[in-house]
Protein 1
Amino acid sequence: MTGLVHLRVRLAILVAALGLALLTAASPAFADDADPAAVVRGLGDRAVAMLRDETLTPEMRAKTFRELLSEGFDMPRVARFALGRYWRRATDAQRDEYLSLFEDYVVGSYGARLSAYGGETLRIADWRPDGTGYALVHSKIVRPEGPPIAVNWRLYEGDVGWRIVDVVVEGVSLSLVQRSEFTSVIRSGGGDIEALLGALRKKRGLMQSGLATTSRSAG
């Protein structure tokens, strides 16, 4: 990965953390809206309130972020995409564990970056269907300083309405980045999905330890 691409990926992950928070504060009033842009637009205010709430402890913030994530995103679909062809090779037990580990991984990885919030706002431009059941919502994150950052949200309309399945920041798809990383781990482990599960178990343990340490320090 070149230095420029690596920098763009790091920017994408950081911005997506903010974007996930801005967009995962879904409520039932927006969950089944027929317009995906309206779904996205309606999520911002509550999310910003969460980001600005200085009374939330790290545990409370992580818990809230997890709840909002499950409401605004189709997490099983996102997780299956990230695993790629290895999903079909996994046993039922491996799939169940992977789905749980994946959600913990997303909450820990992105939730930990929410402290970077500095007054940014989300502006929705438009949206378009792609003819396959998906829609792309175009937006920008406007920063107090610096140029705006283009963020596109890919949504899928399922039984419960529109749900986000990918975040594209300045041309970088977080789903594709995640799939590439997971594939690399599995290949390094000889093509065995247990290599990825082991890495995610370790990552979850480290995240939980870090969260506990942060909480003790804050207290």
Note: Residues 3-218 form a domain with the Nuclear Transport Factor 2; Chain: A, fold (CATH 3.10.450.710).
Protein 2
Amino acid sequence: MKKISVVAVILLALMATTVVAQEGGTATQEGESSDGSEWTLNVTKTGASCWSGNHSEQLSGVSYGGEDSMGGERAVTFTGAIETGTPCHEIAGTDIEKDDDVYTLDIVTNQSEGMCVQCVGAVTYEATFSADQAYRLKVLQDGEHVQDLDYPGYEPGDPSEPQKNVLERLIDWVQGLF
């Protein structure tokens, strides 16, 4: 009886490891906003495992600049880890919305079918986003806000209004007194 239990535990561990080790494909999206600005997104699931100290940050390895693999000019690349109920989750899709020069990216997971090891999971991925203008990228994972990534040169506010220097703001303040 003891040998059967040990064999059953080993088989379950192997099945769970097989399910956890499966990697998803790459999802690529391109879009054009109502204001004519264009963007591209590439998300690749890089793995899934039980949550550990290796996943202490939900986003890491953020880098800006250069062209992405799709020829985008203003690219940001980052690695993410999404905490899930089990490691048997897939990246179900992404949702991108744009408001002025702020893009909101939501990376959504769903549970895979079949047996799975029971632990808090971590689905890891690599993403590259690019747009044809400076931008802020608000990253959400399963609807939860994780971090804002500001592409260098991004300035919040209305880009059609020129930024005033200190002297111009001082003159405006003095004129406001009278």
Note: The chain has one domain: 2-177.
Protein 3
Amino acid sequence: MRARAFIALGILVLVAVQMTLWLRHHHAALPLAAVDFTLTDQDGKPRSSAEWRGKLVLVYFGFSHCSAACPTALAKISEALEKLGDRAKDVQPLFISIDPERDTPARLKEYLKPFHPSFTALTGSQAQLDAVTRAFGVEVRQMEVGGDIMFDHTVDIFLMDKEGRVMQRFPVIVTAQTIADTLPY
């Protein structure tokens, strides 16, 4: 019994240390200067981050072949937008692909169908996407799993203010209600 309590205490200390490190890494550099980029949307049109100045922007980086984290995050953003009601018109959700080889505009358009209709999906060349992920501090690592290409990537949801600065990173465990309640109006 004593050994279990000692192990549980050790686990709690380890979790506390990991959370402290995570918070230092993910929040020390915020806000970031305005992030400027031009990528291609799900309709094949070039889109610039400057288009969304004057709106709050929720950004998630992922890929359409992702089976868990990506659809969960997009569903969470969609739910947060629903909770906002009429205020959702002042928020632009973006899904930025980290898989330019497979995530064509047509594929992204299909992928977005189950999510909030205001979502814009973006893709580009590998060089363009590398520049954007670097600007946001997103880590991406490609790997092969069971013969399929997968990505280990940052799963945070980013909030850009109306001037295009990254003001907040929501961790993967955030609720839709917390996102909705945190948006500055």
Note: DSSP finds five helices and nine strands in the chain.
